[in-house]
Amino acid sequence: MTRSRLMPLDPGVELSILGEGKMMPDPELGTFFETLCDILREADPGCVPIPSLMSGATDAMNFAQLGIRTYGFLPHNFPEGAGYESTMHGVDERVPVGALEFGAAAIHHAVERYRG
Question: Could you tell me the residue ranges of all domains in the chain?
Fold first, then answer.
């Protein structure tokens, strides 16, 4: 759906929405989501997996138009004080090796369990 509308924000400031893409289907936090949570709990006992909303763009909306539900799964366990915000997607982007190994193993387990 494409439309244009003006919304006043502050004196002298306006926001114009030029277009909107098709929305993703409502999330189903069901079986596969629980599988992802289980994988994280097994890898890091005591962790609390939570769903999150990311403002970035992915190819998920293209799959949604085909009726395919997607999950963003970015498992990592940055050590305390590692500066997640300044290292992920920053100018000098980097990830601690341990966090990368943790994430790769979790994704591997997710693929194994999905495959059945």
Answer: 25-115
Q: Which pLDDT tens digit goes with each residue over 102-116?
A: 999 999 999 999 876
**What class does CATH assign to 25-115?**
mainly alpha
CA separation for the pair 51, 9 (Å, rounded): 30
- Alpha helical stretches, state H, the chain: 31-43, 60-64, 84-87, 97-115
- The one-letter amino acid code at 110 reads A
Instruction: Please tell me the total number of residues recorded for the chain in this structure.
Output: 116
Amino acid found at 84: Y
* Cα separations in angstroms, 14 against 3, 9, 20, 47, 110: 16, 6, 17, 43, 45
Q: What is the pLDDT of residue 86?
A: 74
7 three-class SS: strand
pTM of the model: 0.65
